[in-house]
């Protein structure tokens, strides 16, 4: 297993983290996601621990809180040996106050998460989404309060635009509040939007990036093809949430298959290995509903792609530049950089 620091903190986490979103049961769109019972959760967590994973991720909204409760029970006595991240902000009840990032909801949700996880502290507490109806200062002060109480060790965000996260960090520094140290964002070979603004901000602010849905909802596992776009009834047939160009995606899967064949690996392992090659990525969430699926994902830890293979995947999936990024790239004056380059005379 590979390990790294989470952002600029001293928290050491495994670069493959375990995502517990599949734990529990549910109906509707999430029926294809929530499908692991407590016995299955215990086996998957034990398998992850044996592989060296020490970073586990869940949310209060997953399966109505079942995911947190099942993860806490599965970890049991190992809780003190691992870091747990959970999230707040999604709707957890019918009343209007049971959602969002108000002080009331954050503090109540933290207590609920602590109870379900069976722990007295949360290692990484993430706001799950933006809340346009709550003042940003209220949200940030509530998170700081939890840290000062000792109920949370580090705070962060998920699914926020870079400008809002930057504004938040500025306010945190101004008021002496606990600063964002981590984020959890979608990133994959068919979804590289993160690279435009989020990655540069995270690197500058010392925020550790954890990746959710690194296989684009399972699309990059290789089971979805032009001939079988439904992947034999895979998860995307019931939970098709991520927008991306399917035709371009098939070309990416074809490339993953070619590289996988060279390494005796699977397309999923190659897709995950590409993410591990990104220096700005701290950890990748790998979830599973079966032990064989988790074993395949864990095999990524031993897969090292060549520079040529990484470059090929980079070029195949390079996102179109957005304004003003493309403008600044075109008018960039490299004279000073050249002058300061080591060895330049």
From TrEMBL:
SUPFAM superfamilies: NAD(P)-linked oxidoreductase. CDD domains: AKR_PsAKR (cd19091). Residues 15-317 form the NADP-dependent oxidoreductase domain. It comes from the Bacteria. InterPro entries: AKR, AKR_Detox_Biosynth, NAD(P)_OxRdtase_dom_sf, NADP_OxRdtase_dom. Pfam families: Aldo_ket_red. This is Aldo/keto reductase. It comes from Gloeobacter morelensis MG652769.
């Amino acid at each position: 297993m590979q390990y790294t620091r989470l952002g600029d903190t001293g928290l050491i986490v495994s670069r493959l983290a375990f995502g517990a979103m599949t734990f529990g049961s549910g109906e509707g769109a999430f029926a294809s996601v929530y499908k692991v019972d407590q016995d299955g959760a215990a086996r998957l967590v034990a398998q992850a621990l044996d592989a060296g994973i020490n970073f586990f991720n869940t949310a209060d909204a997953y399966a109505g809180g079942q995911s947190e409760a099942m993860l806490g029970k599965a970890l049991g006595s190992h809780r003190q040996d691992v870091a747990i991240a959970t999230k707040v902000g999604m709707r957890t009840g019918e009343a209007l106050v049971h959602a969002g990032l108000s002080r009331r909801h954050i503090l109540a949700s933290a207590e609920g998460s602590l109870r379900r996880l069976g722990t007295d502290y949360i290692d990484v507490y993430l706001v799950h989404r933006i809340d346009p109806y709550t003042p940003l200062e209220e949200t940030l002060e509530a998170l700081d309060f939890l840290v000062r109480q000792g109920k949370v060790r580090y705070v962060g965000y998920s699914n926020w635009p870079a400008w809002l996260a930057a504004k938040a960090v500025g306010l945190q520094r101004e008021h002496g509040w606990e600063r964002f140290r981590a984020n959890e964002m979608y990133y994959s070979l068919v979804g590289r939007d993160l690279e435009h603004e989020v990655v540069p901000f995270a690197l500058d602010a010392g925020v550790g990036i954890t990746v959710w849905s690194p296989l684009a909802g399972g699309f990059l596992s290789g089971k979805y093809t032009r001939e079988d776009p439904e992947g034999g009834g895979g998860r995307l047939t019931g939970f098709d949430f991520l927008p991306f160009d399917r035709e371009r995606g098939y070309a990416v899967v074809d490339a993953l298959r070619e590289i996988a064949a060279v390494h005796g690996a699977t397309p999923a392992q190659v897709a995950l290995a590409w993410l591990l090659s990104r220096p700005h990525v701290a950890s990748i969430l790998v979830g599973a509903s079966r032990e064989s699926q988790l074993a395949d994902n864990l095999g990524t830890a031993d897969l090292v792609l060549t520079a040529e293979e990484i470059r090929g995947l980079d070029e195949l999936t390079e996102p179109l530049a957005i304004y003003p990024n493309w403008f600044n790239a075109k008018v960039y004056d490299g004279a000073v950089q050249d002058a300061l380059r080591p060895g330049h005379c």
